[in-house]
From TrEMBL:
Broad EC category: hydrolase
One of the protein's GO biological processes: inositol biosynthetic process
InterPro entries, alphabetized: IMPase, Inositol_monoP_metal-BS, Inositol_monoPase_Li-sen, Inositol_monophosphatase-like, Inositol_monophosphatase_CS
Family per record: Belongs to the inositol monophosphatase superfamily.
Annotated protein name in UniProt: Inositol-1-monophosphatase
Required cofactor(s): Mg(2+)
């Protein structure tokens, strides 16, 4: 199929261009403005949003609407202002303008612009631009995963005792949730594994799995916009995706395990506390149209 007859490739090329432009906006703010006094909160006192998150999302959605007027959107900040969070079979752009907003506010240099594209509820391609590092992660279903054009491959490690694991503390400070986070962490650390890390961005942790820097990433409480784009980057790099229950990944379930292989995934999942956050497609401000 030639490029001009491949509308999904046109859409992906557009996503790469707009993610790069978004990254330039983010870098400009990080270099020249202090965001710490301009922060607002969403679901909890530590779930942050800034004007830049909103500006970047508007930039992406407006540019896509003008080129692909029939496509639908799920965007973190649009859902936050009451837009529906329903994945239909229509072509849908799934956008997190800044994955790692807390990092952005603190100038901790890991923030990702995430753009995923789903058709028939399957992610066809994903773009994650690590704006401060200037790393463009891309993958299209069936066509491999890349960082700045170089192919990505997950780690070949199968011994959990030689593995590096990534996770996050999230933004839910309910004491019962915090207990479960620490219980899982305690068990994983005590296996033992070589180490536990966290980039502060679900998408960049998943890209770390894709490039072989960590064997596995897990988290409960993520949203569809944090993981959709990076999901295809992980699988195209040879990795596997699971729910923390061990079942198949459900993009709306708010639970994810991304691993280099089944052996590591199964071994770590056995140590994880399973608990639920309200599904993305069931939240009160996410009712169907
Ligand atoms: O809200 P943004 O888009 O910055 O993303 C979230 C991260 O992706 C999570 O892994 C992480 O645990 C946090 O919940 C973080 O908020
Ligand atoms: Mg996010």
């Amino acid at each position: 199929m030639s490029k001009s007859h491949d509308p999904w490739q046109d859409a992906m090329d557009h996503a790469v261009a707009v993610a790069r432009k978004s990254g330039e906006m983010i870098r400009e703010v990080v270099q020249n403005q202090d965001q710490s006094s301009l922060v607002q909160t969403k679901s909890s006192a530590v779930d942050l949003v800034t004007e830049t998150d909103q500006k970047v999302e508007r930039l992406i959605i407006q540019s896509v609407k003008s080129k692909f007027p029939s496509h639908r959107f799920i965007g973190e900040e649009s859902v936050s202002s009451g837009e529906p969070c329903i994945l239909t079979s229509d072509p849908t752009w799934i956008i997190d303008p800044i994955d790692g907003t807390t990092n952005f506010v603190h100038r901790y240099p890991f923030v990702g612009v995430c753009i995923g594209f789903a058709v028939n509820q399957q992610v066809e391609w994903g773009v994650v631009y690590s704006a401060i590092e200037d790393k463009m992660f891309t993958a299209r279903r069936g066509r491999g995963a890349f960082c700045n054009g170089r192919p990505l491959q997950v780690s070949t490690q199968t011994d959990v005792h030689r593995s590096m694991v990534a996770t996050e503390f999230g933004s839910d400070r309910d004491p019962q949730v915090v207990d479960k986070i620490f219980s899982s962490l305690h068990k994983v650390l005590s296996l033992p594994v070589h180490g536990v890390r966290g980039a502060g961005s679900a998408a960049l942790n998943m890209c770390a799995v894709a490039r072989g820097s960590v064997e596995l990433y897990y988290e409960t409480g993520v949203h569809v916009w944090d993981i959709a784009a990076a999901s295809v980057i992980v699988t195209e790099a040879g990795g596997v995706l699971r729910d923390t229950t061990g079942g198949a990944l459900d993009l709306m379930s708010r639970r994810i395990v991304a691993a280099n292989n089944e052996t590591i995934a199964t071994r770590i999942i056995a140590e994880l506390e399973v608990y639920s956050s309200e599904r993305d497609d069931r939240a009160p401000d996410c009712e169907p149209e």
